[in-house]
Design goal:
15 helices; six-stranded antiparallel sheet; five-stranded antiparallel sheet; elongated; 6 domains; Beta-Lactamase; 707 residues
């Protein structure tokens, strides 16, 4: 991608980012400011409504305050002014005072007078039953007899909410005791509620809180999450605002009733003129900004193209020509005295330096490349935490990272096998403390999980007088370890062969010489001589077995393991043995195992031992094949007398048994070459049972067993 396209992409990205920033800023600042202005406007209108309601309550309190402390009212309650109603509480009075009801109650709580008035039809009506029921309550605050107390406000009744005020009935000079209470009020119908609102576009509702449910929006809810601190003093009600939709915003507040309970909800719905105007203003700003940025971008691209890109393209073309000529003699043209001309001059200076150092650099690179390619061992540099900072090619081809980049986060400790990892950590810590740990051996892990032995040499990396890491050289000593294991096995074989040829056979020869001597002494005693000759023949047979075992044991492992069909091995063994009336059953014929060629003697020995020691009652030798997660279990079982529990492990020890004591020992040794194990776990008295466990990668099915 050329610079022109990159510049276009970068400028486009800058414009988009600027617009996004402005949109986000507008949403979070401008629009929030409009929302705050809208909320303030709603609260101002709600404050005005609350002031109007307080004024109405104050006016009602003033009215009832004029009628309560009045001698005429006082005398009416005591029965001394029967014309009080006719002279005072006439329809014109209700109309002038804008009252819907007037109630006079004496000290006993009895209603002395009570009437309602329809302000629309200008006629008296019976008092509402719910108002009568309220006055029947013993604790109703409307039955006010306290001269110093003023009761006025809203009251939620079953028949509808009312604005009510009450005052004790006393003489005009406030002398004497109160003779009852006078109650005046209005019904909170639509006409009365509209008097609280100054704008006909606003929708005001006054409803009981119990009839509402919480609302939520972008600004707040009735649970207080969108409320601000009261603005009219600590006693003022809190006003909540929230947006109902894109066109309507609502303000709500809760007022107490005359009982002091916050049960009266004022809800004011207004058009969202401020917020919508703010949104249009923001969109206009974004549009104009987009136009300005687009024009500015075109201007910048033209300047970059004419003043920068064209000259850079010329310089680039000249550099390409120098590169194609494969010579360091060419130079680029220098025009002008600005930064691009300075760049051209710097390029020419660099070409001069390249020409001067090219030969030396080529020679140095050649020497370094040869050294790096010829260095065959692992080299890793790590920091003090064991994190690699450099690896060579030999290490990258063995361990869990790609040369030049890690496959996953790891440390040098991850390369060591779990059983050696803690020891390596301790040795690494000692190295960092200055101890010499050269020549330590560990088991390491290759990237494919293969284990191999290594010997480590280390040196501290010191920079500016401070230890910054460790340089580790590792050599693969797997071949040495293998040779050591082979040497150990050879020594064990030589030791065993020496024991057989020197000790066991010499013991048998000593016994043979003894019987030969005794035979010479009893040449005239045919029966005794025959007994001695039988013993001599047995000793000779034992010596023959020991010599054959030494030959087989010496050959074991010298020939590579091969795939052998188990059924064919068993069939060949039965042909060589005298089976009497004993049958051999093989469950399947297609199983093959990967084992030393001496594995044939394993199955031969198992059948031979069963025939020798299974007893006269044995009739069957059975071979079964059981697959599991651990591998394949080949079961060899018979129905003979079995093997005593105390002999189950000793039968695999060289020399144990009634014959030569070498068969099962040799069997276990031969199978172990390819990781196969054998054990006996039969029940004494019910027959012998041998289990041969073959690893998963050392068996297969598919041969026909006819070889």
């Amino acid at each position: 991608m050329d610079i022109r396209k990159k510049s276009l992409i970068i400028l486009s990205g800058i414009i988009i980012v600027v617009i996004l920033i402005f949109v986000v800023f507008s949403s979070t600042v401008f629009l929030d400011s409009y929302k705050n202005l809208e909320s303030d406007h709603v609260r101002d209108n709600m404050d005005l409504i609350l002031k109007n309601s307080n004024t109405e309550i104050a006016n009602l309190n003033s009215t009832v305050g004029d009628w309560g402390p009045w001698d005429d009212t006082y005398m009416f309650v005591t029965g001394d002014n029967p014309s009080y109603i006719v002279n005072n509480l006439i329809p014109a009075t209700y109309d002038n005072l804008c009252l819907n009801f007037v109630v006079i109650v004496n000290n006993e709580g009895k209603i002395v007078y009570g009437e309602s008035y329809d302000l629309k039809n200008h006629e008296l009506t019976p008092l509402r039953p719910d108002l009568i029921a309220e006055l029947a309550k013993a604790d109703s605050p409307l039955k006010n007899t306290n001269i110093s107390a003023r009761v006025g406000g809203f009251l939620d009744l079953p028949g509808g909410m009312v604005l009510v005020a009450s005052h004790p009935i006393v003489k005009s000079d406030y002398s004497g005791e109160s003779m009852g209470s006078i109650i005046m009020g209005r019904y909170m119908d639509a006409a009365e509620i509209s008097r609280f609102s100054a704008d006909s576009r606003h929708s005001l509702s006054v409803i009981p809180v119990k009839e509402t449910s919480g609302v939520s929006d972008e600004e707040g809810t009735l649970d207080g999450s969108g409320a601000e601190e009261p603005r009219n003093g600590s006693g003022s009600p809190i006003i909540f605002t929230h947006a109902i939709d894109r066109e309507t915003v609502e303000g709500t507040t809760v007022l107490p009733d005359i009982y002091g309970n916050e049960t009266i909800l004022f809800s004011l719905q207004m058009p969202r003129d401020i917020f919508n105007q703010g949104g249009r203003t923001v969109l206009s700003s974004i549009f104009f900004q987009l136009v300005i940025l687009f024009g500015l971008g075109i201007l910048i691209l033209w300047l970059i193209d004419s003043q920068v890109l064209l000259r850079i393209a010329t310089t680039n073309r000249e550099i390409a020509q120098i590169t194609e000529q494969q010579t360091t003699g060419g130079r680029v043209t220098v025009n002008g005295h600005d930064e691009i001309s300075q760049l051209a001059t710097s390029i020419n200076t660099m070409l001069d330096q390249i020409e001067t150092s090219h030969a030396a650099l080529s020679e140095s690179e050649k020497r370094f490349r040869e050294l790096a390619e010829q260095f065959p061992e692992i080299m890793v540099e790590v920091d003090t935490q064991g994190i690699p900072t450099f690896v060579n090619h030999a290490a990258s081809s063995i361990f869990i990272f790609i040369y030049g980049g890690l496959e996953k986060p790891w440390s040098i400790f991850d390369l060591v096998a779990p059983e050696d990892r803690e020891r390596f950590r301790e040795d690494f810590s000692r190295i960092l403390h200055g101890e010499s740990m050269t020549g330590n051996e560990y088991v390491a892990l290759k990237k494919d999980g293969t284990r191999f032995a290594v010997i480590l040499y280390s040196a501290l990396i010191i920079k500016e007088g401070r230890i910054t890491g460790v340089r580790i050289f590792a050599g693969d000593i797997s071949e040495r370890k293998r040779m050591e294991d082979e040497l150990r096995k050879i020594n064990e074989k030589m030791s065993l062969l020496s024991s057989i040829t020197r000790h066991d056979i010499l013991n048998q020869l000593t016994a043979l010489r003894g019987y030969l001597y005794l035979s010479h002494e009893h040449l005239s005693d045919a029966k005794t001589l025959e007994n001695f000759l039988a013993k001599e023949e047995t000793i000779a047979h034992s010596i023959e077995h020991q010599i054959r075992f030494a030959k087989d044991y010496e050959a074991m492992g010298s020939v590579p393991p091969v795939w052998e069909n188990v059924y064919s091995i068993i069939r060949r063994a039965t042909v060589q043995l005298s089976m009497r009336d004993v049958s051999v059953e093989v469950e399947r014929k297609d199983c093959e195992i990967f084992a030393d060629p001496l594995a044939e003697k394993v199955f031969y020995n198992l059948i031979d031992n069963a025939l020798r020691y299974g007893g006269d009652g044995m009739t069957t030798i059975r071979f079964r094949f059981l697959e599991s997660d651990a591998g394949l279990v080949i079961v060899c079982e018979d129905d003979g007398v079995g093997i005593p529990a105390e002999d189950k492990e000793r039968i695999f020890v060289r020399g144990f048994g009634k014959n030569t004591g070498l068969g099962l020992f040799l069997s276990r040794e031969a199978l172990s070459i390819t990781g196969i194990t054998i054990r006996e776990n039969g029940m004494p008295g019910t027959g012998a049972r041998f289990e041969i466990l073959v690893p998963p990668d050392k068996f297969r099915f598919g041969g026909d067993g006819l070889a």
